[in-house]
Amino acid sequence: MLDSYGRSIEYLRLSVTQRCQQKCTYCSKSSGFCIKDSELSAERLVMIAKACAQLGFNKIRLTGGEPLLRRDICEIVTGISALKSLGDIAITTNGQLLKDCARDLKQAGLMRCNISLDSLRADKYKEITGGDLQSVLGGIHAAQSCGLDPIKLNVVLIKGKNDDEIDDFIELAKENPLEIRFIELMPLGDGGQEGINNSEILRQREWLRPAECQNSSQPAAVYSAQGFKGKIGFISPISHSFCANCNRIRVTSDGYIRPCLGSNLEYSLKEALEGTEDALKQCIVQAVTNKPKGSCFGQGFKTNRKMNRIGG
Ligand code: SAM
User: Fold this and answer.
1) pLDDT, tens only, 221-262
2) Domain coordinates in residue numbering, the chain
3) What's domain 11-310's superfamily in CATH?
4) 39: nearest Cα among 190, 251, 274
5) Using a 6 Å CB cutoff, which residues line ligand 1?
6) Looking at ligand 1, which residue's alpha carbon is closest to its atom 10?
7) Per residue in 179-198, pLDDT tens?
8) Is pTM beyond 0.85 here?
């Protein structure tokens, strides 16, 4: 469906939990907390997905918090994959628990996964995320083995923390059919850290060339180089706003639509979830219609929900 600026909104990022076992320094250092009771049930999440599918959405990504902490994650994926009009069902995960459930997720109908990986060094990875590097590497391998691909690895670069690993990540894309995605730090976490401007990375590596088949509806500018098996994606919400082509809305795990990541505007779905399918669709239409023209990232934006509570 079209928003009031003529953008075609067809991508739902559906958060299934605010809980996370990691404490990424740029997201929420206290992300282990959560009121589990406020999480929408699998049934409600599928109702939202179904309403969006009927409104013409064709892509759904499950996120969080850490989506694999939901014991009923396969049930959620099964319910969503039964919606035949969807062309893409993906998940974003920290990968810590992926090794043991990748195959079940694939069988439930999951098509792809993006995995967050902020360092290739065990000590640094632990320092940034609180997690275990070997577990996420095991998760990546399991996802590759059961065909949950193409796999994209999300890297948030922090000045003085992991920006000395940029070339190691690029090297990984040389040797493996993966897409490494450098995501600019957004003001959606605890603060006190400085991100890296993606243009700087590119300026210093002129040998990277725009990859063929760029998809205008995805925010990443994708590059590659001769002899590379994989690609490098640059997601640059701070240095290069992609709001004019934004095609998404977010739904939080406690039942609010956030039409724009860089705005605190939200619409509660709670009442509508108690009513008819039409009431639910009307609420989604209202949020899409009022989607802001652009994010407020360049205007001193202060979020009232950290990333783990919105759904990254
Ligand atoms: N727990 C899952 C994970 O770690 O991938 C999914 C949720 S996480 C919030 C989703 C994505 O948001 C991750 O790739 C993470 O790196 C990114 N993210 C979190 N906080 C961010 C921030 N302040 N700026 C940019 N990206 C951020």
Assistant:
1) 999 999 999 999 999 999 999 999 999 999 999 999 999 999
2) 11-310
3) Aldolase class I (3.20.20.70)
4) 251
5) 20, 26-27, 63-64, 66, 92-94, 116, 154, 156, 183, 185-186, 188-189, 307-308, 312
6) 312
7) 999 999 999 998 889 999 99
8) yes
